[in-house]
Amino acid sequence: ALFEYRNDVKQLSDLVERLTAAMAQNTSLGVINLGEARRRLGPSVDAEVARCDGETKCLTAVGERLKVKEVLLLAVSQLGDVVLALQRIDVAEKRVVARYADSLSGGQGVDEARLLGWLQQLYPPETFKRYGQIRIAADTVGAQVYVNAKPRGETPLHEPLSVLAPGNYRLLIEKPRHLPFQASVTVMPDTLVEVEARLVK
Questions:
Q1: Which of 24, 46, 157, 159 has its CA 20 to 30 A from that of 76?
Q2: Would strands 2-6 and 70-79 be described as parallel, antiparallel, or unpaired?
Q3: Mean pLDDT of the chain
Q4: In the predicted model, is pLDDT for residue 141 greater than 90?
């Protein structure tokens, strides 16, 4: 969940929305912004976050009610320059796991590269990998499924296979005494590709 705490600063009012968009486009994280938090917990969530005054335990209580793993708090204040402080809070452990601060002087803007730079300071590199899924429906039970020559289980596969995206994948599904099924698919981030495999005896 992404929350914002402001101290009478009118500048950069769209920053939390832009940060949410940057996270959605560049990471594998599911992000809940304040609008979604209001939808789930009601309009009083704004006042609740403001009452927390940036305090970790209070914010984790809101995070628990939203059933999220982490809260990212963007605090905006002004001491001559606009000061931005980001805190990544683990909800289960009720503690700050990463912090980053930056300052903007004299009406300086924030471009997308700077937003991404902040996120890269807060999150490990694997967070920036994106995934898609391949769902394979086969007409034969007990066939071995290979994705790019790596075994991924036998049919029927009850869950879609998660793969890095964007990416191109070669599928091979084979069973003794059957002609193998082969296909190539392209998987984009956050999408599901469905494949129907028919194996002929």
A1: 24
A2: parallel
A3: 89
A4: yes
Residue 79: pLDDT above 80? no
Q: Is the pLDDT of residue 106 over 70?
A: no
User: What tokens were used for 90?
Assistant: 């683990």
- Unique residue bearing structure tokens 């917990």: 41
DSSP-derived secondary structure letter, 101: E
Q: Determine phi and psi for 139, rounding to 5 degrees.
A: -90, 5
Beta bridge partners of 167: 187
| Phi, psi angles (nearest 5°) of residue 103 | -130, 145
What single DSSP character describes residue 79?
A: E
The Cα angle at residue 127 between residues 188 and 68, in degrees rounded to 5 = 100
Q: Chain-centre distance of CA 93, in angstroms?
A: 20
What type of residue sits at position 195? V
- ω into 166 cis (within 30 of 0): yes
Q: Using DSSP, how many helices (H) and how many strands (E) does the chain show?
A: 5, 11
Q: First vs last Cα of the chain: how many Å apart?
A: 51
The length of the chain is 201
